[in-house]
Amino acid sequence: MTAAAVPSLALVSGPEEVLVERAVARFVTAAKAAGADVIRVDATGYEPGSLILHASPSLFGGTKCIVVRGLHESPDELQLDLLSLLGGPLDDVSLVVAHGGGMKGKKVIDTLKKLGADVVDCPAIKSDRDKSDFVMKEFARARRKITSDGVRALVEAVGKDVRELAAACAQLVADTEGTIDDAVVDTYHGGKVEASGFRVADAAVAGQAGEALRLLRHAIATGVDPVPIVAVLASQLRQLIKVGAAGRGSSAQLAKTLGMAPWQVDRARRAVAHWSGDGLAVALQAVAAADFEVKGGGRDPVYAVERAILTITRARAGH
Amino acid sequence: MTVWRDLVGQEPTVEVLSHAVRTEGAMTHAWLFTGPPGSGRSTAARAFAAALQCPQGGCGECRECRTALDGSHADVKVVATEGLSIQVRDTRDLVQESALRPSVGRWRVIIIEDADRLTERAADALLKALEEPTPRTVWMLCAPSLEDVIITIRSRSRHIRLRTPPVQAVAELLERRDGVDGPMALHAARAAQSHIGLARRLARDEGARIRRRDVIAMATRIVGVGDAIDAAADLAQIADEESTASTAERDAAERSRLLETLGADPTARTQPPHIRSQLAALEKEQKTRATRHARDMVDRSLVDLMSVYRDALVLRLGSTVDLINPDAMDKVRGLSAVFSAEQLLGCLDAITEARDRINANVPPLLALEAMALQLRVPRDLNH
């Protein structure tokens, strides 16, 4: 973290909390190092006028750094105050504004950008690819090497929450030496796989019984409820049936008529080639039975889902 | 004129109840009315309440009778829920009220129209009041069957069983009370399978008749797997549309009334916290009501669908029982031709299973899909 010169205006925009916190912390440290007073303003409980009060020059001189968090859910008064503050000269005050995305407060953002604010983007980290990139950046910043297998293992183990992922990276950097590969990750996070219902359903629909059951066990062990898993299984099979019955046509057009995303249509098309109509019928009926059992109709919800998965993979093989 | 005039086809029950009104010794403090939906459980309970309040024992004309029948009598409390269940806090209030002496009438009557929707804790809260009643307080509970109420309530109350009224009797009631003409009344009564409320709706609402016809047409339309999924989606959508159409207006009205009561500004973009919490509570209530309504709608469609398979089975077995759908004869014949008796029973089972699953909180669409897949016919019967 470099203690760069304090910019008089900074905009931290994007929904990813971890990155926002880091960016804000960097500015705050820099401001403190420069001897400024740091004043935090919370957008949700904002009292009209207090921003102007904070920004007014102090009797004893000295500089100030005002940090405004959560502009995207701020009341109109705060936005008006910010705009009037930005309209005048800013002496001895630096302003850091965090915005989580969305249209609210757009005028403030535009004004900040026009005035040449330092902009830090904090895009959401959602897909596995984003997470892998994030992990690689983390290690690159700490000047450490990690193999691609290591990245994959780490994302698979603790990738559900970005904050947790960041903490795991920091721990590995602090506790180990040399290149980090999947064996090292395994030492720290071995045996833990954060599986979602989607991964379970993908494996089941692809006919991989063993893989699907393994992922299901992991999902249950990491606190996923059986109910959403069954719901995902049902929706995947439903998509297969819809796409299978729709026949030919471009996937974009099909996506529109079926109310699905084009990539979902393409994926379902690839998968449905291995299925027969009767097989799909048996599979969906098994899921409906499992849903009933999961919601109190049976004694053991996990067993109900397992049985449904086995029926699905068998129905695929039996065509 | 008597209070019993709208309770059709239940002569034995009327006999028992009017005897209890006339004879002090035949009266008891807790009654449990059971019978199939639409047979007139709550009508029976209200009529009984009116007869108890009436100085002439149920003339059907006096003030006491009229107010008791329409539920506005000061000493007749009617409890029904539009949500999914009756909660324990509601029954606790009832128990307190049951301890009071009647104010104007001879009895304090508490009618619980959906005793099957009492949660277990709610039912438990009633037990003491049912067991050691205040003098001159009468409890009347209504449920589809004895198994729908917990055993400790069953053992504390006197059981009155209503039967399915004959189609003819229901048709006569529609003609007499609602002014429906003869053939239509008979058709509606038969199509509704003697469910009085449904028959009335079918007789008077063109939209309901069209919906019923669409549902029945579905039976012969499901050929492939894709058809089954489409049919299930249609069924679920019919229910959804019906339920939002009938509740949206009412929800909005309730919301604006609440805002008015609280003195809030209805045009404000964000309400203050204490009003927001009240609004959230209202929205939650409206949501359970919508869920219940949508489920009821699906259930009604499934009963209609079931009747076609039942008719096909009757035809297949060569039985001489009356058909429910003589107006959809081609579909009934088609089904009985392509399915064996076992397969028809399988279809009926699939529909029953779907109804059970929906009641157990399975998403209606999923339950309907599993059912529709079972109902696939070997070839398209419409061509």
TrEMBL record, chain A:
Keywords: DNA replication, DNA-directed DNA polymerase, Nucleotidyltransferase, Transferase
Gene3D superfamilies referenced in this protein's UniProt entry, alphabetically: 1.20.272.10, P-loop containing nucleotide triphosphate hydrolases
Any one Gene Ontology molecular-function term assigned to this protein's record: DNA-directed DNA polymerase activity
UniProt-listed InterPro entries: DNA_pol3_clamp-load_cplx_C (IPR008921), DNA_pol3_delta-like_C (IPR048466), DNA_polIII_delta (IPR005790), P-loop_NTPase (IPR027417)
Reactions it catalyzes: DNA(n) + a 2'-deoxyribonucleoside 5'-triphosphate = DNA(n+1) + diphosphate
Transmembrane segments: none
Keyword Transferase: yes
E.C. no: 2.7.7.7
Stretches assigned to the DNA polymerase III delta subunit-like C-terminal domain: 196-311
Superkingdom of source: Bacteria
A Pfam family recorded for this sequence: DNA_pol3_delta_C
UniProt record similarity statement: Belongs to the DNA polymerase HolA subunit family.
The protein's name in its UniProt record: DNA-directed DNA polymerase
Organism: Intrasporangium calvum
Lineage: Bacteria, Bacillati, Actinomycetota, Actinomycetes, Micrococcales
Automatic annotation (TrEMBL), chain B:
AAA+ ATPase domain residues: 27-166
Listed name of the protein: DNA polymerase III subunit delta
MF (Gene Ontology): DNA-directed DNA polymerase activity
NCBIfam families: PRK07940.1
UniProt keyword annotation of Glycosyltransferase present: no
Classification via InterPro entries: AAA+_ATPase (IPR003593), DNA_Rep/Repair_Clamp_Loader (IPR050238), P-loop_NTPase (IPR027417)
Keywords: Nucleotidyltransferase, Transferase
Organism per entry: Intrasporangium calvum
Record EC number: 2.7.7.7
SMART domains in the cross-refs: AAA
Superkingdom field: Bacteria
Record's keyword annotation contains rRNA processing: no
